[in-house]
Amino acid sequence: MDAQGRGQAGDIDPADQWVLNPSTGEYELRLTPSAPQSAVPGPRRSAPANAGTGRGRSAAPERERERETHGVPGTPGQVPPPRRRRGVPEEDPLPGRRRSRAPQKKKSKAKKVLLWTGGTMAFVLVATTAAGYFYLKHLEGNVQTTDVGTAAKSGFSKDEAFNILIIGTDKRTGAGNEAYGDAGSVGHADTTILLHVSKDRTNATALSIPRDLIVDVPDCPTVLKDGTEKIVAGTQDVRFNTSLGQDERDPGCTMRTVKEVTGISPDHFMMADFNAVKTLTTAVGGVEVCVTKAVNDKESKLKLPAGKSTVEGEQALAFVRTRHSFGNQGDLDRIKVQQQFLSSLMRKMASSDTLTNPAKLLKLADAATKALTVDTGLGKVSTLKDVALELKKVPTKNITFMTVPVIDNPADGVVRKTVIVNPVSSPEVFNAIANDVSFTAVKQQKAKEAAAVAARLKGTKAAASDVRVQILNGGAVAGSAQATLNYLQNDEGVTKSENAGNASAELAKTTLEYAPDQADQARRLAAIMGLSGAAMKPGKSVTNSQGLPTMTLTLGKDFKGAGVSLTAPAKAPTVEGQSTADKVKCAS
Which helix (DSSP H) or strand (DSSP E) does residue 314 occupy? Predict the structure, then answer.
């Protein structure tokens, strides 16, 4: 993908077409050039009696000058001039008029922030105006999409937790990138982050997956460049980065591999190449980084003094690519540096310096959309805008960066060549993310709501033989309903249970719906299944095959197998090296 070669904006920078409307306190997009607008039609007023009388000053020319500068109030695309009290000079005096020496009143920082709260990505802002529709269409032309079939969801829900797989490829396409070596790379998964955003938007977790992690890549249905489909055979005990590019694998293969490794299903993917780092950092005016000692890396061409520096473009790319200047010169230490860089980029994008600067915002929107390849479910800019708005709700202090817990691969015979998933500590991490548990101290539910949920588990429990339940498969692996039925009848004595087939829709979480008079049965089944109070849904009963009222157990995508507890951990584990996006760290 050549991220710089798509969707050029033309000779006029759209950022120059945003003007402040003083009557609303908001910026508006003016689609005509920002030159004087004298050609715009508008109501004409008769000249005063002294018009053209030599020494007498005419009011009409002054109005015409105001019309040329500001446009006609009420005309679409034009901004009315600010009202001023009689006797108060204009802030920008017209030619020939004296400039006031009175100090200009500065807009408060709070007011500036209120002017621009559109989203993490700048195109969120233009979507709020009718004129912005045309610029959104321009941005939509920037974005490339890849159809990964069932590996990704067909749409985006603003009401659920979501997982986006962010993939940085090592493909060398794009101006200047061929000089980095390995020019023939097919574009492997060089940098991969599974971003989980909580349902209540109080927190997010960015889980880095090492490229040298040894994994099993599953069979992958793939659409080739000529439009034909093929199944790319899976491979065992290979580096994670080969899940993309190798043997014509697409990002859907990487998504499926992540699910294989973590048990967590990515909903969508966003993929970018080297140009993304260069263009995004330039669009925001540079990103501040910090190193504990001076760096002079001959391979990446990174040269920085000790302490803080601002990098953009080629220098920013060199910073995230450098391995030989940090830690033990391996990929795990490079991941830490990349996490620090992304934290700094997030802070810069969320800063008032960026959010109150229309030119910078629109350049950021243009750069971001040109840099991205996404699945078809995210292919519309309106959908990307929705994603950005949801991401914007998460405070940077509650965005946790961490790496999959790993150990050295014993098959290598040497340390730090390849790694494998740590079988002891990684399951806790994957389980916390899958169950939407925060790695930062946040209050995820209101006290009353939390108390009500917990109360569902308290009280008397019916005998297992008295529990009536029908089981539906609502997103679990095939055969889960029958396996659960066998477990309940043969191992737990829930003999009044039956397999009701597939649910009408898939669910992310397993639920148990019951009528009020079935609460004691629900509590018994919750104890057997390891269900949390949140999984118990007071509602209504249904009729089973014997014509008796019964509860409904719907197995969601979180179902792990018959007899495996579904209770979410109360607290996420602490992972070595984890950090949050609000913290400034220096690479060492």
Answer: helix 314-321
Q: Taking the CA of residue 273 as centre, how many other CA atoms within 13 Å lie in the half-sphere pointing to its CB? A: 25
Assign 520 to helix, strand or coil: helix
Residue 52 binned pLDDT confidence (cut-offs 50, 70, 90): very low
Residues 254, 165: contact at Cβ < 8 Å? Answer: yes
Q: Which two tokens stand for residue 95?
A: 């030619």
Q: Hey, what are 300's tokens?
A: 């990446």
Show the tokens assigned to 277.
């780092």
Helix (H) or strand (E) segment spanning residue 296: strand 295-297
Of the candidates 505, 510, 522, 504, the residue with the CA atom closest to the CA atom of residue 480: 510
If you search the block for the tokens 């997009």, which residue do you land on?
Answer: 29
Alpha carbons 299 and 301: distance in angstroms, whole number: 6
| Nearest alpha carbon to residue 143 among 317, 383, 309 | 383
Give the three-class secondary structure for 376: helix
Task: Express each pLDDT in 424-477 by its tens digit.
Answer: 999 999 989 988 889 998 765 555 666 777 788 899 999 999 999 999 999 999
- In percent, how much of the chain has pLDDT > 70? 72
d(CA 550, CA 518) in angstroms, rounded, equals 8
Dump pLDDT digits (tens) for 323-364.
Answer: 878 877 778 888 999 999 999 988 888 887 777 777 777 888
316 near 276, Cβ under 8 Å? no
Enumerate the β-bridge partners of residue 27.
20
- Using an 8 Å Cβ cutoff, are 501 and 472 in contact? yes
> What angle (nearest 5°) sits at the alpha carbon of residue 87, between those of residues 86 and 91?
95
Query: What DSSP element (H or E) covers 138?
Result: helix 132-140
Work out whether the CA dihedral 152, 156, 161, 165 comes out positive or negative. Answer: positive
CB 372 within 8 A of CB 143: yes
Max distance between CA atoms of the chain, in angstroms, equals 107
The neighbouring-strand residues paired with 576 are none
So what's the pLDDT on residue 254?
A: 97
Q: What is the DSSP string of 525-570?
A: HHHHHT--GGGEEE---EE-TTS-EEEEEEE-TT---TT---PPPS
Segment 505-517 mean pLDDT: 93
pLDDT at position 362 is: 80
CA distance 52 to 167: 69
User: How confident is residue 165, by pLDDT bands cut at 50, 70 and 90?
Assistant: very high
Residue 416: its pLDDT value, please? 66
**Host H or E run for residue 123:** helix 123-126
Angle made by CA atoms 551, 556, 561, in degrees to the nearest 5: 95
CA distances from 565 to 243, 486, 522, 554 (A): 31, 16, 15, 15
For 102, phi then psi, to 5°, come to -65, 135
Q: Which residue has the tokens 């070596």?
A: 181
Check: CB of residue 530 under 8 Å from CB of residue 431: no
pLDDT at 133: 59
Q: What is the DSSP letter of 432?
A: H
Coil vs helix vs strand at 236: strand
* Rounded distance between C-alpha atoms, residue 540 and residue 511, angstroms: 13
When mean pLDDT is compared over 91-95, 237-241, 564-568, the highest value belongs to: 237-241
